Structure formats: C-alpha cells, structure tokens
Amino acid sequence: MSADTPLMPIAGNIDPVPTGRAPAPDVDGKRNLVGLNKDELRAALLEAGMAEKQAKLRGKQIWHWIYNRGATSFEEMTDIAKAQKPWLMERFTIRRPEVVEAQVSTDGTRKWLLRTHDGHDFEMVFIPDADRGTLCVSSQVGCTLNCRFCHTGTMRLVRNLEPYEIVGQVMLARDALGEWPSRPEGRMLTNIVMMGMGEPLYNFDNVKQALTIVMDGDGLGLSKRRITLSTSGVVPMMEKCGDEIGVNLAVSLHAVTKEVRDEIVPLNKKYGIEELLQACADYPGANNARRITFEYVMLKDKNDSDEDARELVRLLKKFDLPAKVNLIPFNPWEGAEYECSTPERIKAFSDIVFEAGISAPVRTPRGRDIDAACGQLKTAAEKKSRAQRDREAAENQAG
Ligand code: SF4
Asked: Theoretical Cys-Cys bridge with 157: which of 142, 220, 225, 397, CB 3.0 to 4.6 Å?
C-alpha cells in the first residue's frame, strides 16, 4: 500500500483503513436495481418520473421478480404492462456480477471466478453437504488485513464490493443450482457464510444492505440463523453487527497468545485477544442456542500444542462464551511459510477442547484441488507472476 493510498472511513468508532477506490460508474448509464433496498427501488422509479402510486405497485412487483423469481430482464415480468417495459429497459438494468469461470472440485465443491462491472475479479465458493449447502461469500476485492496464513491476504485491497455484488453472489448461486423461485423448503443453498475474500466489518454498510435483502421474507428469504459473518476481530464494529444485522458470528481466532496472534493475524496488534473475547461475550444475541464459532487454523509447531489447547479452553471459560471451535487443517499454497499440523496433533488438540465440554470438530478440507478451501482464495489474475503479466502486456501491445 503506498503512502498516497486514500483512506476509507469506516462507520463506527474505528480508524479508517487504506482502500483502492470507489467503483467506476456503469458504462451504459443505466441504474442497476439489484442491491437497492425496497425504499430505494421505489425512489429510483419515482426519480425516473414514474407516478407515486404506480411506483409503489411496480416497486413491489419488480422486487418480487428480482428476488423471488430470479428474473434477469424486464421481459420476464408478466404482470408488468408490455407498454411500460421499454421505459424500464431504457433506464434500468438487473445485473449480477459476470461469471468468468466456474470450477467443480472432485468433492462437489464449486468455485466461481466473478467480475465486477468495472473489471475486478473476486470469488465465491459453494460447499454442498448431505443435509445443507453453504455459500461462502466475499465482501471485498482483496483484503487489507494480511493474515499470514491466508492467500487472499497477500492481495492488495482493490475495493469494497457493492451491495449488488454481494447479494448478486447469492443470486448467481441460485441460478447455477436452479433454485428459483425462492422457496422455504428443499433447497440446496441453505446457509451463507461471509467468509470469502475480505473483512466484512470493514465494508459494514454494504454488507448490511446486502444481507438485509438476503434475509427479506419477500425475496431471497434466508433466515438470519442460517447466516454467519466471520470477522478477524474488528472489535468496535461487532456490537453494531449484532444489533443491526443480527446474524451469527464467527471469529478468526487462530492463536491464544499475543506473540503468535500478532504474527498470524496482525489486526491483533490493534485489538488484542482479551478485548476481542470481551466483545464476543457482549455480542447481542449470542447464547447457547446461537453459539459463536471460533475458527482456528492448525499450523505445525506454531499454535497447535497441548498447552495452546488448554489456554484456548481457559480463555473461552474465563469469558463464559457460548462457543464452538472449528479446527481447520491449514491449506497450503505456494509461497506459504507455514505447514499443516499432523493429523495426530490435530486430534490431540481437538480432544483436549472436547474434554473441557466445548465442541471442537475438525473441518474436512473441501475443494483443495480447485484452490477453493479456506484461506486459498486468490483470483487467477492475481496468481499470475509478474513476468507472465509483463509478457502478456507486451504481447497485447505488439498485437
Ligand atoms: S483471513 Fe480473511 S481477513 Fe485475514 S487476510 Fe485472509 S481474507 Fe483478509
């Protein structure tokens, strides 16, 4: 990040963080209706000159078509007068992010490389299980937090994703799974985790707006109990998240001593472990039925000793946290400076936590063959070496 990178103000009482830039305006000059809340959608119709009474009715119909039926064009909206469609089409679009590439892992995990309207790539991952399907959603292109075990953290932050780009990920997954119209039962996409690229609490307003649309009963209709937001520990935003979004919380803890957490999750230098756990204890809505998930990546000889496991138990008990611990075997990537703990070590660690009465399952790595597993997300464009990019640029110029 260079010294002249502009700072992005974050809602709430925290320091601004460096950001790339705001999204470029749409090329076609049309307003995208995806990502607007109900009031904004109606206001957009009014601003474009529609009469008030009609804007109210059309707003409701269009909302239903976009979020319940998955419509991607006004032509599909059979209850909107034919004569009005050209007027809508001239002024508005219904756009999701572009799908650049879709990959399927041997274990059924799917990963999509997506592109924003102004040309930035990001990813989302769908993980099917026997009784549920979880979509791992990104909140930023790149990330500022540089967690040392995370491949995404080696990308610079390009920009925050807009509400349409966040809710659009859920819509694209529904497209691919054939899950329109929205229905309460029998769907494959049952859960959402805000655990893809980026730190969602550094893009609070857009994440809140997108999740509000996802949770709306007239639209995508996913219950807040099935949505989990994962933070690296942006302490001042956690209470606001519980109060205003109300989803489940997951925390990337990954270490129990200041020394190790400072190294692998550098945000710890700003918000230390005790402060973070206190914010978890105060998280609105957390109780034994809605436990907080603590993510813990298993790094060989770094954070995986018996002593670490016992300290983890001590800390969770000290703060009386309704907790479950997810042990994540480290997913290696080229250039990573850590190794995964041995299966025996992970088992011993898990046993200590379980014996203390705290659930600590070991997560089976999913989608490793397509780099879709935890901490592996990094877009294809960014993975190219500098030399490769230079060569391509030279070829483009020559061509
Ligand atoms: S783990 Fe999450 S917060 Fe940390 S660098 Fe990776 S994407 Fe960013």
From this structure: 142
Task: Measure 199 CA to ligand 1 centroid, in angstroms.
Answer: 6
Output the six-digit token pair for 158: 């390009």
- Indicate which residue's Cα is closest to atom 4 of ligand 1: 147
Q: Are 241 and 202 in contact (CB under 8 A)?
A: no
C-alpha span between 112 and 123 (Å, rounded): 6
Cα of first residue to Cα of last residue in the chain, in angstroms, is 32
pLDDT tens sequence across 26-59:
667 899 999 999 999 999 999 999 999 999 999 9
CA distance 168 to 210: 9
Question: What lines the ligand 1 site, CB under 6 Å?
Answer: 143, 145-147, 150, 152-153, 197-199, 232, 252, 375
Half-sphere exposure (Cβ direction) of 121: Cα atoms closer than 13 Å: 16
By most ligand atoms within 8 Å of CB, the mutation choice from 146, 197, 199 for ligand 1 is: 199
Q: Is 364 exposed, middle or buried (0-12, 13-18, 19+ CB in 10 A)?
A: exposed
pLDDT higher than threshold 90 for residue 93: yes
CA atoms within 13 A on the CB side of 321: 30
Beta-strand pair 7-8/17-18 = antiparallel
| Residue 103: exposure state from Cβ atoms within 10 A (0-12, 13-18, ≥19) | middle
Residue 252 alpha carbon, nearest atom of ligand 1? 1
Q: Which of 124, 143, 203 to mutate to test the pocket of ligand 1 (most atoms within 8 A of CB)?
A: 143
What amino acid positions are annotated as catalytic residues? 123, 374
Question: For residue range 62-92, what is the model confidence (pLDDT) as tens digits?
Answer: 999 999 999 999 999 999 999 999 999 999 9
Q: Choose between 121 and 389: higher pLDDT.
A: 121
